[in-house]
Design goal:
By secondary structure, this protein is α+β, with helices and mostly antiparallel strands. The protein has helices at residues 3-16, 54-66, 77-84; strands at 20-24, 36-40, 43-49. Strand 2 (36-40) and strand 3 (43-49) form a beta hairpin.
Length: 89
């Protein structure tokens, strides 16, 4: 799988889990902001900085999703293997 495919699969998985990945530019905020999960107007979002390298975006999103309960969630084996690396211990 290409990094683009992995990232898209992680975003699709996020939708299955009930939240949306939204890419935003943090440069205009004027503050030090980090990518992460939040709730805005009762909508669960994962805000991702558009200026982060794709490899880092995958790592950040996989780390968050890997910490969630995924036992009964259907996903591609390659994605499950990736997320297993980030499971909360």
């Amino acid at each position: 799988m290409t990094p683009d495919q992995i990232y898209q699969d992680l975003k699709d998985l996020a939708e299955k889990l009930g939240f949306t990945v939204s890419e935003q530019s943090f440069k205009r905020t004027g503050t030090k902001a980090r990518s992460g999960f939040c709730t805005v107007k009762n909508e669960d979002l994962f805000i991702m900085d558009t200026h982060i390298a794709l490899k880092k975006k995958i790592e950040i999103l996989a780390e968050y999703i890997g910490g969630l309960e995924l036992e009964n969630v259907h996903m591609m084996p390659a994605i499950r293997e990736l997320l297993d690396q980030y499971k909360a211990t």
